[in-house]
Write the structure tokens for this entry.
Amino acid sequence: MSALFFKRFLQKPFQVASIIPSSRALVERVSDKIDFEKARVIAEYGPGEGVHSREIARRMRPDAQLLLFELDAAFSRDLERQFGDDPRVHVCNRDAAALPDELQRRGILSCDYILSGIPFSILNIDKKRDLLQKTHNALSEDGAFIIYQVTNELKQHATLFEHADSEYFLQNIPPMFITVFRRTAGRNGHSHPAAALAQTVRSSSVGQ
Ligand SMILES: C[S@@+](CC[C@H](N)C(=O)[O-])C[C@H]1O[C@@H](n2cnc3c(N)ncnc32)[C@H](O)[C@@H]1O
């Protein structure tokens, strides 16, 4: 168990909202939802001690950028230390709601992916709506917003996204819903070329 993670949980239980980081299996499953060939700008809300950020940085292109929004100062210092040698990674010790401001400051037009580990369910409704709107506005046309949460309650609020795909992932303590929201549905109403291809393969094997 990460000692820093547990310490930060004891200091700010509602903000950190978990006593252990995401499992290796969850990290891999979430990263598998990102098309790293395409991704040039990825933002992450609530990286904590960086368990997802390290995997994303490991897989992402040399010319991609990863913006980490972490409210907690101790986690942010630790992230700065971990990624100090990687010019692709920018640690922002700010609320996730500062995303539009940070993009403008850096001359970035949009994000291809936004990943969130923040405890959305405990945000008040106005903050939740505001962050969803900012997230939607910041995504490129075929961009995706990926969340992993204990409950799937955000789905009922995220109606501005045209498409949502959820799975219940058991290999984490506690189990999590992983949901991918997309601004636009892809061809055939599917969310992603890979999903559309999988559906085509499934449909043709059904007929055999
Ligand atoms: C449940 S932890 C997840 C940590 C890590 N992503 C993981 O999977 O193990 C939630 C993290 O979100 C951060 N956080 C909570 N609200 C935030 C906000 N509005 N903006 C940025 N970070 C936030 C907390 O400080 C904490 O590090």
